Amino acid sequence: MTDSPAVPDVLFTNAHVVPIVGEPFDGDVLVRDGRIAALGTGLADQLSLGEGGIETVDAGGRWLLPGLVEAHGHVGIHEEAHGWAGDDTNEAGESNGAKFRALDAIHPTDEGFRDALSGGVTSIVVKPGSANPIGGQTVALKTWGRIVDEMVIRQPCSMKSALGENPKNYNWNNQKRPPKTRQAVASQIREALVEAVNYRERLEQAEREGKHADRNLTNEALGLVLDGTIPWCQHCHRVDDIATALRLSEEFGYRLVVNHGTEAHLIADVLADRRVPVIIGPLFTSRSKQELENRSISNPGRLARAGVLIAITTDAPVVPINFLVHQASLAVKEGLDPTVALE
After folding, report:
1. The pTM is what?
2. DSSP class of residue 264?
3. Domain extents for the chain?
4. Which CATH superfamily is domain 9-64 in?
5. Are strands 54-58 and 134-137 parallel, antiparallel or unpaired?
6. Domain 68-342, CATH homologous superfamily name and number
7. Which of 220, 235, 287, 337 is the most exposed place for a label (fewest CB within 10 A)?
8. pLDDT in tens, 142-181
């Protein structure tokens, strides 16, 4: 593999700068070797512009922000405009897909990555879909690169799981395969986690006895959840499914992150008390199923005011990923604190 081309030094001038730390200001930002080297006012006067390969970009008073983060999406694994050939989101052949890795199905030339950059989204957590009670391992990526290995921030990043309508509905055409009820979905998750606990005990026993134990990719992956290495990202919209997510996390002691959380505001105090974060959204969809009946752009503000740590998701490509900032701005219009929205 050849080395990547050198990144030119760039000085952004005349920008309204919103830094990660500190108050916004009107001024300049210097980028060297692809990293922020300095920010402040009057940087142009301190540098020898035109020498040493420094380019200048006049922002014209526009906002200059840190890259936005999409905390829950399917870009690259559910390719846009490619139909079934580019859809690798759901592997529904097994209810427990913990061994599956989104990493192995991501196409970096997906149009969604170009949309992400056009909308200021520079990082994304790509997740398997919600057809399975346990969908598989997620991966955190930068939104540019020639192959996915060059884009990885963290692999695995979390474990995707689903409760509610999606894992129920996916199997109705296969009358012999459960789950078809919420109780069956929850029981399959519990059975998988119990087996992972037992697997770990068998490994420990074999090690004590100096014996060989066969590897199991599914149980190894779930072990990362049980030992706290990665969190459990739980797809759930309705308040009863969110309560089930809380119940399961307490039983097995893993770190829970609620994904979607359409009705999470109904028990916001409980989520805040238990310090369970919510990745809420998408917010620009129709109420296409019963679980979305209480969808509202005001819900992020309700959660944040109750003390819940939130992120906003487009669930791209459900909502175009470059609309992430617009979801945040409209959530501000509906009561979300502007600083919280940027964070």
Report:
1. 0.91
2. G
3. 9-64, 68-342
4. Urease, subunit C, domain 1 (2.30.40.10)
5. unpaired
6. Metal-dependent hydrolases (3.20.20.140)
7. 287
8. 999 999 999 999 999 999 999 999 998 876 555 566 788 9
